[in-house]
Every structure is written in C-alpha cells, then in structure tokens.
Amino acid sequence: MRRSESRLEIAPGLDLPLTSWQPAGRARAVVIGLHGYGDFRLAFEEVAPWLAERGVAFPAYDQRGFGEAPGHGLWPGRRALARDLCAALDALSPGDGVPVHVLGESMGGGVALAATQITRRPPSSLILVEPAIRDGVRLRPVWDLVFGGLARFRPGLRRVLARGHNPLLTAPARRRLAHDPRIVRHIRADAYKGLLALAAAASLAARAVQLPTLLLYGRANGIIPLRVLERAERDMAACVTALRYPAAPHLLLQAQGWEAVMTDVLAWIEGKAVPAAGSSAVLRRAGPRPSSQGTKALGASLVTP
C-alpha cells in the first residue's frame, strides 16, 4: 500500500489538498471519499489503507471550507461543493474502465447525492454513510425560518461544536476530532442554513437517483433521526441497498468495529451478497449492485428485519 499527498485542481487557480491511498499493484476499483462537516480528508485514515491493501484505491480531498482547503470555517455553498465533486470525478476517474465509486459521510453523502443531478461522468455507485438529508424532519419549516433569519441578520453567529468525546469512536478518530487544528470547531449561522439547503437538495436528488446506492446507518445515530434515514430507503427504493447497524453511532466508519462495516462495503462493490458473513448489519432493502448499473433502475425488495 502506498500513500501520497498532492493537490487536486478543481478550477484555474483553485486546487484542494488530496491524499491518495493506492494498492501495491493495479487498482481494481477506485473509491473517492467525501468527509463530513468540520472534518477533512483524514477522516478516512483508517478505512482507506484497509481498502488499499485489498486492491481498491482511495483518494480523498479536503472540501472547500474545511481542512487545509481555502475558506476554513466558511460555508462555500452547496452548488460549489457539488461542482467540486464533478471536477474530482473527471480528474480521478481512470481511463482504463476501472469502476469509480463515491463514498460520502454525513455532509459528504449529501454532496454526493446533490452532484448526481449535474455530473457528466456519473460514478459506478454511491456509498452513503448516514448522508445529510431532510425529508421526514419534524418542524422543518420552523427550522428553515429560524436559521434563515439568523443567517440573514447575524450570519457570523457561531456555535461551538464538541468533537472527539464519543467513546464509541476509535482512538485515532477521537484524537483527530479533539486536537487536530484542521478540524472546524464551530458552525456559523449562515453555514447551518447552507447545510439545511444541501440536505434539502440531497433529499430531492434521492428521489431521482438511478445509480446503485449503498445506504449505511447506525441505530444509535443520535444526529440524524432514524425516520429520516428510513424515508430515504423508501425514496431510493428502486436502486438502494440499505444496511442498519443496531449499535453503531454517527460516523460509523470512524467507530470501533469499522472493519465489519468496510467488509460489507467491499463485498457490495464486488457484487457479492450483503451483509457479509459475521456482520452485525440488518438488511433493510436489497437493490442492484454496481455490476448491474444502467439507466433503468432495478426493483428493490424490502427485507423484514
């Protein structure tokens, strides 16, 4: 396994920090990683080497406003984030037919969904880890009114974010979230409004997405209500395979036991049955796998837990 640091050119005069984990030989697949709000590319510092050791290349970049990218702590706009992913797909897709998948965690999952509406180079599949979505949120108009008003009249109002204290996370994840200066440790009112707009766009895209999609979430999430993720299952019924991990928290790829989750991810992109043997996941819906991609969505089946 080889790790390299470089820059990803998004547009003339704009490039973003990029870390790539590459297998020793030829990659049999590429997974592009999109981190969540406040985090940066090293959110995948544990899962990416694991995949690379199994023949899957994993590039991850700092999205605008996060990590070492321009505008640290400032919201860049949902459209800019989606366009950046489109540019990344153009730049990071091999020309030899190797399948490319997009893995988005939390905010990154919302960006992945939103980008499906504008990309000219769709990936082979989406892997959504508790994506930022909004359909099914209670009192949604109230939240829109409150944060819309704050963003207009006090856009710089900040709320401190407590990071790295969840004991269910791995030790490296807790250290990074608690101490790394590249972590964004606050959220501005205008950024909160922007996140809500991104989640709304992602929910709209979920109803129209046709790509094979793997949806992963934990029952002990505590961040995104369970009913919202269950609504996403129904919205993406024609193309989604949904796995629920009963004891997993938010950021389940950074939680203890992430190896079992990644075993399910690897099995799915290889076209094998999921959950893999020994997994704690509950199969909620079984949809098409990446090998069956196409413009026509395939029927999904509901699996009773």
Search tags:
8 helices, two-stranded antiparallel sheet, disordered C terminus, ten-stranded mixed beta sheet, 12 strands, 305 residues, alpha/beta, globular, single chain, 22% strand
Short description:
With 305 residues, the chain is α/β, with parallel strands linked by helices.
Characterize the structure shown.
The structure is a single chain. This protein is α/β, with parallel strands linked by helices and 305 residues long. The chain is built from 8 helices and 12 strands. The chain is globular. Residues 292-305 have low confidence and may be disordered.
Strand arrangement, major sheet: 1-2-4-3-5-6-9-10-11-12
Question: Structural class given helices, strands, pairing?
Answer: alpha/beta
Average pLDDT reading = 88
Low-confidence segments? 292-305
What percentage of the residues does DSSP assign to strands (E)?
15-25%
Number of helices: 8
Question: Could you spell the SSE succession in H and E letters?
Answer: EEEHEHEHEHEHEHEHEHEE
Taking the sheet with the most strands, its summary is:
10 strands, mixed
Rg from C-alpha positions?
A: 18 Å
Inertia-based shape? globular
- Work out the number of β strands: 12
- Based on the structure, what is the oligomeric state of the protein chains? single chain
Our measurement of the CA-to-CA distance between the termini, rounded to an integer number of angstroms, reads: 38 Å
User: How much helix, percentage-wise, in residues?
Assistant: 25-40%
